[in-house]
Design brief:
The chain is an alpha+beta fold. It has two domains: 43-198, no CATH class; 208-271, no CATH class. Helices cover 31% and strands 29% of the residues. It contains five helices and eleven strands. The strands form two sheets. Strands 3, 4, 5, 6, 7, 8, 9, 10 and 11 form a nine-stranded mixed beta sheet that branches. A two-stranded antiparallel sheet has the order 1-2. Strand 6 (80-98) and strand 7 (101-108) form a beta hairpin. Helix 4 packs antiparallel against helix 5. Bound molecules: zinc ion. Residues 11, 13-14, 16, 29, 31-32, 34 line the site of zinc ion.
Amino acid sequence: MQELSQSKIVCPQCAGENDIPPDGRFLECTFCGSAIYIDKSKVVNRFVIASNFSEEQAEGNLRRWMAGNFQVKDLDKNSVISAKYFYYFPLWYFKASDRGADKIYLQPATSTSVSEIKNVQIPAGSMKPFSKKEFNPAQFVNPDVLYDNARNWLEQTGVTRESVAESSLVHIPFYQFYYAFGGKQYTAMVEASSGMVYANLWPAKSEIPFRMLFGLSIATFLIVSVLSFVIGFAVGGRGYNPLLLGEIVKIFGYGAASVPLVIIAYFVAKKV
Ligand SMILES: [Zn+2]
């Protein structure tokens, strides 16, 4: 960890001493040009992952995700996108060595409802140092989760402090979409370097038709059982055991009743 003197900070890249800017936490090293982020407890390099997707391409990925089998039928056709934003989301990046192999861990550096974000894959060699010439600072979300807090979360998942060899602040490009479906608002994010879709909440397949089908099955089998014994007793008078006859009729009755139920279940699953 860096020792901070009153007004100087040491560049993590070249060890050059820089003045702390009065107005903020972001700084460009005057010696080597590295982008630096200053936290209360830590000075780190600041990196950016480049965006590879246009807004149209990102929306195309979202529509394909909506059309997927796990989503509500016609989600892609019936949802209306109400807003879309592009921004670089800040993540704490920790490189830890686990028995000689490097492992990357990410923690959101600002609050988000989409917790899946920490599962983003950062391709090796894709981290570029931030520069004002190359990127528009207005598109960057400022971090508000401190390094120590992110580190504590990491520790709770079993990654020890000693094993962390490298820490940085990484900004990852996202398109965030807001969409309405069935009178409710949802949000989904498309990671703009890989095109992956991230969402925590989306319109769920309705359970009501499945519950109705379950009720229908119980009622059907109950009726078949009663009818079987009615038949058993009606026929049983002529020398047959009425209970045994009822059981035999029931086996055939269950078999016959399950055919339409299976067909209904198939169509319910397809329609919902
Ligand atoms: Zn430097």
